[in-house]
Fold this sequence. Notes:
The complex is a heterodimer of chains A (333) and B (324). Chain A has 333 residues and is mainly α. Chain A has helices spanning 6-33, 43-68, 76-90, 94-99, 103-129, 133-152, 162-169, 177-195, 197-207, 209-214, 219-245, 256-266, 278-297, 302-327; strands at residues 157-158, 171-172, 175-176, 247-248. In chain A, the strands form 2 sheets. In chain A, strands 1-4 form a two-stranded antiparallel ribbon. The radius of gyration of chain A is 21 Å and the shape is globular. Mean pLDDT of chain A is 84; it is low at 327-333. Chain B has 324 residues and is mainly α. Chain B has a domain at 50-245. Chain B has 13 helices and 4 strands. The radius of gyration of chain B is 20 Å and the shape is globular. The mean pLDDT of chain B is 87. At the A-B interface, helix 5, helix 6, helix 11, helix 12 and helix 14 of A face helix 5, helix 11 and helix 13 of B.
Amino acid sequence: xxxxNSKDMIKQGGIWVFILAELVFFSIAGHYWSVSNQAFxxxxxxxxxxxxxxxxxxxxxxxxxxxxxxxxxxxVGAIFALSAVVLLDSLSWPFMVALGDWALPLAWGFxxxxxxxxxxxxxxxxxxxxxxxxIVTLASMLGFRGLxxxxxxxxxxxxxxxxxxxxxxxxxxxxxxxxxxxxxxxVVLWFVTTRTNHGRNAYAIGNNREAAVNAGIRVxxxxxxxxxxxxxxxALSAVVxxxxxxxxxxxxxxxxELWAITAVVLGGTKxxxxxxxxxxxxxxxxxxxxxxxxLGHIGADTQTVNLVIGLILIxxxxxxxQLTRKGKEELKx
Amino acid sequence: xxxxxxxxLGSFLAKQGILIAFVLFMIGFAMxxxxxxxxxxxxxxxxxxxxxxxxxxxxxxxxxxxxLDLSVGSMMSFSTIVVLDLHDxxxxxxxIPAMFALTLLLGAFIGFLVGYLKLNSLIVTLxxxxxxxxxxxxxxxxxxxxxxxxxxxWFSFFGQDRIMGIPVPILIFALLAAVLxxxxxRTSFGRKVYAVGGNGQAxxxxxxxxxxxxxxxxxxxxFCVAVAGLLQASRSLGSQNTVGQGLExxxxxxxxxxxASLLGGSGTVFKTVIGVLILGFxxxxxxxxxxxxxVQYMVTWAIIILAVWLDIxxxxxxxxxxxx
Lengths: 333, 324
């Protein structure tokens, strides 16, 4: 959306100012307290950061459209895990083994198809029954997790394929494969949200569903497409990550939904729908990862990260409310 | 006598559907395996549902008030760890009130943010989920917490003893449910909770102190979490830092299954208890029927969707959503 006034500027730019502050703080603090001799702003370190942001980041980008649409998806962690299981397990199917390396794109295809299908199930239920997306995806979070366990019990599913590992660890122009997928997702989704009818309609529906219906927008299919999109992205995140690690536990991906939502909200997207941006979410993802890395860099315990991220999330919410309220004559009690 | 029309039948099913489903499940499971209705099995299921149930009762207040609480799982980990740690340092007699005070403090903080500052409850409690987890880890240093002398403490009373043959957790669960059900249905505070959740603005205009009511619902939720932490700690006398992880969503599932609307303004303590018991008995019944544990996840999925769908279908008079 276009930046209409200075308040929007502050809101959209806020996350990047925060990232800058983090960089400055950790560089200076790291100079005195760091346990390593490496500078925090070391290029290698920053590139690694982008790679580590990718798994949650790709999901969070999809969550942005879902939330602009006025919905939420709590089942992404389970979709992530099931897609990973399908990816690794399908490589050991007899006809796939016979295909040799040609099986790899097929395995990716199966995993992505799994994600799209699960997303379509969510979308179809939200559309046809009219149940709130929060409840639908809360329930399918359990149901999809059940499918993961059904596949292989409590055993991890493992299949380390060296061609896949080489692909995942490859670096083009200094960036890892995962980073490229993250950047690619940003570009595509930025284009979809700002330059297409589908994106404009997503904002319209989230802003005022009644008005959108009256304007002739078909709300249901839009929901459906967006849930398929986030299913696809959760699966994409899984295939990128598990191509490298080669082993998935049935509990993997738990709480990913909450991390993704945290990143999206930090990036300025409204839970109520109708407002938000892909670039902001990218900022939110990077800010969280910087915080993790930075606190580790100055020797803080891992537990501090949880505390700090939680409090920052609340602080952002508070600041955002203060900025928003000035304009509106809101009821004060 | 009301005539049994289709509409009447529909609204009856929608109102009492959850009870009917509960009875049908019980009969079905009992036919599959006789052990299901054995007294010791039933008491075992209720006992193991007690922790989830106690928390769900508190969250019912929050949900009726029109908010959400995603922090209860990590808050329960906190209270469990704290009471176990303090047990060996200041003795159980002081550890329990200290733990209650600290947990209530967390609840008050959330209540202040959501009630008085009017911040979005989903995000506040999401942030608190993470922040409280950090607090717990800081408190314990990341280590598991254990009581040194496990056989020589009366602390195990709450989770392990029986009074007149009834396990104490069940008694606490029942007592808390009864008291809070009275509070919700018989006091003016309870009516105000419904009013605030049903239509916050109208409640404000009619002079109900919305902020204070919301604040109170979070205090009640934190109190219930503290009770659950006590039960958990007393039952196992040792704990990991992540003992309550994921509980928040199970609790919500039980509350929704009990028919509370996430928009606020509806739900009862009794129905939430039924929701909790349904989850517990389904888990138990499926296991006794020889099915793997993950089947319950998928059954729960189907039940939640069907229950909520029936509920809203009855309200709007159409099975399918009017969304184009």
